[in-house]
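Supplementary Note 2. Why include the ligand at all?

Several targets in our set were suspected to adopt different conformations when bound, so apo predictions alone were not considered sufficient. For every target with a known small-molecule partner we therefore ran a joint prediction. The input for zinc ion is given below.
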Amino acid sequence: MEFEVVIGLEVHVQLNTKTKLFCSCPTSFNEKENSNTCPTCLALPGALPVINREAIHKAIQFGTAVNASINRYSKFDRKNYFYPDLPSGYQISQFYKPIVENGYIEVNGRKIGIVRAHLEADAGKNIHESNYSKVDLNRAGTPLLEIVSAPDLRSSDEAIEYLKKLHSIVRYIDISDANMQEGSFRCDANVSIRPKGDTKLYTRVEIKNINSFRFIQRAIDYEVERQIEAWEDGVYEDEVIQETRLYDSVKNETRSMRGKEESADYRYFPEPDLLEVYIDDETLETYSKIPELPDEKAERFQTELGLSEYDAKVISSSIELANFFEEMINSGASVKNSVTWLTVELLGRLNKNNLPITSSPISSSKLSDLVKAIDNKTISGKAGKDILDYLMEHDISVDEAIEKLGLKQVNDDSAILKLIDEVLSKNSDKVEEYKQGKTKLFGFFVGQVMKASRGSANPQKVNELLRSKLS
Ligand code: ZN
Ligand code: MN
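The joint prediction is reproduced in token form.
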């Protein structure tokens, strides 16, 4: 039997507001344990929450970016559960009326629905060490936007594409640093299968908190395989039950963690300490103006700058890369060479060292200087690669590197002619053979002249001058 995979994703994005969702504690990461706390986020009796406007604004920006409706009225509810890192015994979330509903993003030409995005407060962290556990409440009360997709994704590849797009969008509109290692972009996956052609939804299994794209993909693949096997073995009903499973990246498997709660288990009820959120016209207008999004940028790179669809997509995939590229173009580097030197040469070297573009030792202005030196033939492309290698290790300017490595391209006819004369007189026997018709020796002469110039002669000039000299 052929199966269809059905995936829906829930992503928790930590908003980059300066302060927490309901108090004025800072949201900074890596502080001393329990130092970013106050009576409100410690849930001391009598302390009252006050909503952070900045979080509302960022939710509006997100809703706009994903073509969603932004609810003029939304409200908060209590989601009740006990956990040591949740001192109040409930999470303040939006259940009945979320701030954002009914959007979509486009992933490889398919519209993937976004059912809702709601604001909620994060919990703290439990830290387990050998014989004891500790609780750090610095993160408690940090604003999250939980983004819930429709079950529209049909493969783990598509799920990853969707996540990368979402990741890119939240970075473009600057509502989150979306740092996956620090937990600012966390994903839960709901996975089910069904016989191809069937339209109903079968039992879904939730896989919790997977913290890298690679692991998300593996976790989904493992889970799909497990469900298909259960179906084929005739034990689907027994083995695929609605539950929450944890992905173990070491063993590459998912394991049952707990039965999945239904929403009724959380005893949701309206949060009595907060008013409804109302968004007025002015606020909506101000925050629904958002910067250019990745797809728009890719489109513009193609129509205005003539990039290929592939290059445009690569460069616009992250805001840092797109900015880097645009800074190069704006400082006068040619488009064609900027694309190559950024995507092939610099990214290739960064990947080899496992560095993201944000940690590049070469700034956009330095790479632009290098490209301009190639554009105006001060150096050859080959010399450019040596210079780039050198600049990866040494913090000096492009001009200094050209000087230091002696790679300035020789474009001066008389200097090149001098080298040609030397080469030809040293190889008079070969010149004779050439004149007798062994024309393939031409390449040999070019090579010798280039060698004599230690790679610095302009190869085009060498070709031209040699040809006229030998004819
Ligand atoms: Zn606080
Ligand atoms: Mn949540």
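The first strand starts at residue 3 and ends at 14. Residues 3-287 form one domain. Comparable summaries for the other entries are listed in the accompanying table.
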